[in-house]
TrEMBL record:
UniProt cross-references to Gene3D superfamilies, sorted A to Z: Phosphorylase Kinase, domain 1 (3.30.200.20), Transferase(Phosphotransferase) domain 1 (1.10.510.10)
Stored PANTHER family: DUAL SPECIFICITY MITOGEN-ACTIVATED PROTEIN KINASE KINASE 5 (PTHR48013:SF9), DUAL SPECIFICITY MITOGEN-ACTIVATED PROTEIN KINASE KINASE 5-RELATED (PTHR48013)
Pfam families, per the entry: Pkinase
Keyword Repeat belongs to the record: no
Protein name (record): mitogen-activated protein kinase kinase
Domain of life: Eukaryota
UniProt xrefs under InterPro entries: Kinase-like_dom_sf (IPR011009), Prot_kinase_dom (IPR000719)
One term of GO molecular function: ATP binding
EC number: 2.7.12.2
Domain Protein kinase: 15-289
PROSITE patterns linked: PROTEIN_KINASE_DOM
Gene source species: Hemiselmis tepida
UniProt similarity note: Belongs to the protein kinase superfamily. STE Ser/Thr protein kinase family. MAP kinase kinase subfamily.
Length: 314
């Protein structure tokens, strides 16, 4: 297999479990062990057919994205990126035609899995305001780190937030494979969902890191509601995108069930005009997000994840 960031290859890894712990249409995440280091890692495999030149370019892009552009020896990287998923390296395995991205293993689940289990369970399985404050504080801290390094996440959605059983939140899906998809003509299989695109991205004008703030607001609102907030025309993709751009703020529909401070924060994140949205730094000063600094909120979140997902399942 081809070596990539950090000189890794498939031969350096051993499977922990025969089945993927998560799988999508063109990708799967496996729990594995880096044999030499003895570290338990998560490896995201993406099915891609690439020639050598594309491979090298891709591995460089993935490594840059996942390392947030900082060399692995940079102490800044370890201390400030505490809520951004840790990255070991990437490789391309030619025989199986797969890109492998080696990351920290996070026991628990992603926010989509958590909120879906919560919606089924109801009652004591409910995500509380304290849980949302903790998720937001950690997610905004991660975005603030990325934005301060002039990086835009571009693919923020509920499944991009991993939550472990101690209530630690990590931002993942950093490698924006969209650019690659355009160049190799494999767009359909790799392109992530546009349902979380801010209006300016849908319209096609240039966008800034404020698009991540929109996606954060939509993600938290979705987890609160238990389903995707823009429901109106979901049977027709184009109509759905028009609906996102034109319809009133989706917070209105559920305002009676939202804590006042959370409602205010989500309204700001979901402003149609990018210039009207707060920055990650602004959000870190809001009362609701600051509540999430309290370790009790994190402990509560961890307990809920254990309860909803059954601790030993992943």
């Amino acid at each position: 297999g081809g070596k990539g960031g950090g000189g890794l290859s498939l031969g350096d890894l051993r499977e922990c479990t025969p089945k993927a712990i998560r799988s999508g249409s063109s990708s799967a995440v496996h729990k594995m062990v880096l044999v030499k280091e003895g570290a338990v890692v998560a490896v995201k495999f993406v099915a891609l057919c690439l020639v050598q030149a594309e491979r090298d370019q891709l591995l460089k892009e993935v490594s840059d994205s996942y390392s947030c552009g900082l060399p692995s020896s940079d102490p800044l990287r370890a201390s400030h990126r505490s809520h951004v998923i840790g990255f070991y390296g990437a490789f391309y395995d030619a025989p199986s035609r797969r890109l492998g991205i080696v990351m920290d293993y996070v026991g628990g689940g992603n926010l989509e899995e958590v909120y879906k289990a919560s919606a089924k369970m109801g009652g004591k399985g409910r995500l509380t305001d304290g849980c949302f404050a903790s998720i937001m504080f950690q997610a905004v801290t991660a975005l603030n780190f990325m934005h301060s390094h002039h990086l835009i996440h571009r693919d923020f959605k509920p499944s991009s937030l991993l939550i472990d059983t101690s209530g630690q939140v990590k931002l993942t899906n950093l490698g924006n494979l969209r650019k690659l998809a355009k160049t190799t003509g494999q767009a359909a299989s790799v392109v992530g969902t546009t349902c979380y695109f801010a209006p300016e991205r849908i319209i096609g004008v240039s966008f800034t890191n404020s698009a991540d703030i929109w996606a954060l607001g939509l993600t938290i609102l979705e987890a609160h509601m238990g389903s995707y907030p823009f429901k109106a025309q979901q049977h027709n993709y184009i109509e759905l995108l028009e609906h996102i751009v034109q319809s009133p703020c989706p917070v209105d529909a559920v305002k009676d069930t939202l804590a006042r401070e959370l409602q205010d924060v989500l309204r700001k994140c979901l402003e149609k005009q990018a210039k009207d949205r707060p920055s990650a730094q602004d959000l870190l000063k809001t009362e609701f997000v600051l509540r999430g600094r309290d370790s009790a909120c994190g402990v509560e979140l961890g307990k809920l994840v254990r309860f909803l997902l059954g601790c030993g399942s992943r």
